[in-house]
């Protein structure tokens, strides 16, 4: 049940990795916006517009997992902080590697994630990104502090609808390393 999976998260240091992995997967699919700290879709009484299984479509999830399994030899996972990854793993990767980073949101990170960044952490990631030779993309909430950290990068800004608890529109940005080109990127979307 959802309650059992939530309890597993509270004891994550003492449970088996496979059990914790399933719990994380289950809560990601059944919590509002996939946020582990959030409540269940539809509420505990399931009287909301959407029910717990709104994002838990078994056939589609099985298809996705099987697709990942097909490409497992090309996928590497590291349990590292972004800066450690960029400094110690990425330098040994081929030049043609595309590094994609999706750090915690700058503004709402503390509300959404168990492990969020302070400004200094975001600045350290930006500095580490600047030090790699591989192609790189970084996605963030589009806020002035992040634009300043990535001021030397071209970027694309776009709007998204969110519905973790209340519906609202937000703006995000993808910053592109200097070795990447985005054909048709409008001048108004590029960093000055």
Q: Which stretches are low in confidence, meaning pLDDT under 50 for 5 or more residues running?
A: 187-192
Q: Helical amount among residues, as a percent range?
A: 25-40%
SSE order in H/E notation? Answer: HHHHEHHEHEE
What is the first-to-last residue Cα distance? Answer: 51 Å
The strand line-up of the biggest sheet is 1-2-4-3
Name of the CATH first level of the largest domain: Alpha Beta
Level-2 CATH architecture of the largest domain: 3-Layer(aba) Sandwich
- According to DSSP, the number of beta strands is 4
Overall domain count: 2
Q: Helical segment tally?
A: 7
> How much is the radius of gyration in Å?
19 Å
Please report which band the strand proportion falls in: under 5%, 5-15%, 15-25%, 25-35%, 35-45% or over 45%.
Answer: 15-25%
Query: CATH topology of the largest domain, anyone?
Result: Rossmann fold
Give the averaged pLDDT, no decimals.
86
Note the main sheet: 4 strands, mixed
What spatial form do the alpha-carbon principal axes imply? globular
- Class based on secondary structure composition and strand pairing: alpha+beta
């Amino acid at each position: 049940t959802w309650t059992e999976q939530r309890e597993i998260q509270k004891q994550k240091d003492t449970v088996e990795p496979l059990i914790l992995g399933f719990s994380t997967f289950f809560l990601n699919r059944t919590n509002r916006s996939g946020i582990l700290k959030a409540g269940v879709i539809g509420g505990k009484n399931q009287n909301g517009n959407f029910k717990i299984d709104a994002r838990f479509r078994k056939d589609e999830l099985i298809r996705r997992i099987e697709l990942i399994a097909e490409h497992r030899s090309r996928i590497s996972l590291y349990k590292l902080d972004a800066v450690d990854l960029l400094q110690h793993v990425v330098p040994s990767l081929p030049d043609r590697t595309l590094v994609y980073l999706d750090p915690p949101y700058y503004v709402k990170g503390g509300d959404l994630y168990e492990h969020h960044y302070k400004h200094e952490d975001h600045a350290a990631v930006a500095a580490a990104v600047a030090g790699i030779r591989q192609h790189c993309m970084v996605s963030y909430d589009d806020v002035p502090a992040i634009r300043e950290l990535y001021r030397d990068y071209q970027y694309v800004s776009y709007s998204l609808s969110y519905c973790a608890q209340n519906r609202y529109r937000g703006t995000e940005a993808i910053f592109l390393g200097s070795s990447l080109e985005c054909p048709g990127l409008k001048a108004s979307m590029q960093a000055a």
